[in-house]
# Entry
Amino acid sequence: MKPYLLFVLGLVSASATSCSGEKFGSTRNPPRLVVELDPASVVGAIDKPLPLAVDTPIAFRATIHAVDVNGALDTSFNRFVRVSTKPGAIQPLTNDGASGRNVELVQGTSASIEVKVSNAYGVTYIVADDLGYRPKDPLSETPPKCSNAIDDDGDGAIDFPADEGCAFANDDDEEGGTYAQGVSSPIYFELPRIADVRGLKCVTGLGCSGNGSTPYPREQILLDTGFREATNSFAFDTVVTRIASDGFYVTDLKDKPGTVRGDAGFNSVFAFNFNAPPRMRTCDRIKTYGGTANEFFGFTQMSYPTWTLEEWDPAARPCLVPEPELLSALVIQSAPDLLLRSGNFVTVDTTPDGKNKAMVTPHFGPGDVPRSPGGLFTPTADASNCDLDKNGKITFEIGNPENDCNAACTADVECTEWSNWISRSTFRITVQDGTGTRAAIQADASAAAGFDPIALKGKELRHFAGTLHFFSGGSQFTIEVRCKDDVQATLQEAPFLSDKTCTTDDQCSVKAGLAPDFKCVQLGLGAKACRKLDPEKPDVREPPPLACVFPRTFLENNPQ
# Structure
């Protein structure tokens, strides 16, 4: 046993030596920067955040200090530091000692600077970085050291970008910085909603407008979906409206097309997920939602999305998917009006009163578009093809016959260009509203099995609904059906019943289009809706038939 005891004592001795600091480095505070906000700055609070300001700078005052390893002011620090915000952006600094987004520290301290922050959201910080950057006018009498063709610091590398100590070409210092960093205390902003991410900007007294372009390009961003974790409740609803083969669509129900915030459009967005999201289905409510905001040919989408769901329980609440908006011919003629509706659930219908009509374009056939005696292209019922050289594409060049042919078909609200249908499976629907105005909009019924637009050309459609997609490459707006239930091809058919709230049983009767035994019942969250009660299973409440709402087990096995 003695050798064993000696071995243990040896381990204890080695441990005691290690703990003395002889074998391990001691911890210490490295040199760092400190960003001190002016006490008068209004920074909000976690429960009372500042309003979100899209493309509108908000000013904060700050002073930056350099601190040494002992936590004391480093009076030997005389150099520029880079100022930024995370998240968001800042405007160029205009104070003394400032150059662009850089400010000079003299004897370890900067002057009080005004930092104008824009497009910040959530918890935000003003950040200072020591990059070893000393900006100098490149047109000065002597060029900056990082662009003078001399190895000033003798490290074997000459000028920017070869010399790692050069931050930019106008850097007058080839030595790198300490790369110390400092951040301010937090500034609290609201999270953006879908319309904010899609570029909606509202000005008091002037209303709201937007161009559909995100102010947060290529940024990882978290959206406000209305869910409040502290109370496990929703201030407003963000609901899944469509499951696609490569992602999903969601809509903020509190915003919708109009003229003021809350009624101004850009309230839907597509999440590109590479495939259908598992277990998610139409009618689910989004609790948390994040991703990278991107523009895909003019259509804002969230890439690499993350989310959590409140799965739809018909016994607890209505479905919440909004009724599709009936597009008039006047709206279809207006690209700005369509853009603010992009991503939304829309429809073109032939209404029972005959005031609105929708039909597959009658000029839709494989023959080459003939020319009139005057040389103009004139599409006919069996001739709408503009691929005249049969190479599988239209040549869009001024003076080219194919370009002239395609322009003639586009101008004809009753024409679908044949080669576009063959290559992309898209066709056009002619719409006429109560004013007699006529227009055409592109449609894609690929998800509606059995729907044959060629067989139905020139025939009126009772109902054609779907999400409105935008592609800037050809300024094309397309209604994409979600499933076969979104299309009623004959005038005798009616759209699927929605899951509207109700107040009386009459609204759930056969006269309202429901089968017998539907009643207006109280749901778990306080709302009333039409539900069919099973006498043998009184706790089971069956909602009316809903278009494109599949059982969750179906989504798991066969994602749409």
